[in-house]
Amino acid sequence: MLKMLIYLELTDCCPIFAAQFQKYKIKLIMKTSSAVIKLVLWTSKELKDGTNPIMLCIRYNGQSLISTHVSCKPKDWNEKQQCLKKTFPNAPALNAMLADMLNRAIKIKIKLEQDGIDYNHKTVAELFKGGDADKSKPTTFYDIMQDMFVKRSLSKSSQSVYNNAYLSISRFLNNPNFIPSDINDTNIKSWAAHCSDVCCSNTMLNYIQKISTTLNYASKIGVAFKMPVEGLDYIHSHYKLKVEHRNLQAHDIIALELHFEQTYGVNEGLLNRTSKQFVLAFFLCSYHMQGLAPVDMLQLKKENVTDNPDAYKIVTKRQKTHVPLTIIVPKVKLAADILKFLLESADTRGGYIFPVFYANCDKYKLSRTFNTTSNRHLAAIASELGINKRLTLYCARHSFASIKIQQGANIGLLANTLGRNIANIGVYISNLSSDDELYKLSIM
Question: How far is CA 228 from each of CA 72, 208, 225, 419, rounded to the nearest angstrom?
Fold first, then answer.
């Protein structure tokens, strides 16, 4: 106010002085009649993980602090530029969100001043939190997940795994309406340890993948939070090792084949999808059909198969990646005998080779039921044969890959037979899908 009085006195008595100061008039007025809004690191408050919260600070006739739901240590904060340093995890996305919050608050202030409305720090803060906020943007983890389902057109089976992952972590946090910033490195590790007694490694890997994907989606749509990179990486590596240890060895596959031949054999019992006989046959077929995933096997129809003199040739594609596949099943394999028997009755099931799906059926419901029943039967069979591993349908795929690598298979060809994108594993080899090459790999 004193500066303003001096300015007015001098301009009244000296026109030359007034002209010199005319260009500074707006700047002078802004200093005395406008709110100061900036991003600050609240160093006087320390969170449980040792970081300090980043706050949106509004100063004008008092002060309001609004949480950005992002925190860091002082060494990670650039005070001058009001942003996280580049070395901070997920810094570009977080800085973009922080800048968006800052700009939104500044726009509210400018609008108030343009409309000639008297305001203070509380006015800006209330408008920021209330009417000016983008209410169309999902904020809770559940709402973000549901938004992702719609935007990415996820299948029912995928949505089911996401929902199970959400239920698991929301029960642990005891908060169904938790937001992404509620997940941190510490509590996500605690959640994984809590679940380890009731969830198998594959389930935990699926859960952590779905949680990571949802958090990444939240980041992309502009939800501000700190990605728990350390916790996610720790859980993924921990359970990945457990899954690798569950791969069967070649002698385990031989033991399962002998058990099938001596106990069951290829007969009418294969048409009962809930029987141990069919489940074991399905598992062995998955292994010998180049580790074809269970979901892809269920989709196979008679039209996908060509009966050649030495082998059955199957042309299909992965449901997950839509990568084309050519599968060779040599007729010296047990899987070829099972395939031959099931092909004879495929027309009665709408062309489906394996007696799980049929014409106009609820595929989602049947696949879920079949997966649960199969894993229970496989666990019992493993116990009977003294296989000290938790046997599931998907083990056939991993076992095929690990055994072939141990036997010296070409990595590029193996990736091709599994329907994997070679570029994703850092290997590029062309012309690997000839029938002769596939036959060589399948006969090993």
Answer: 12, 12, 9, 31
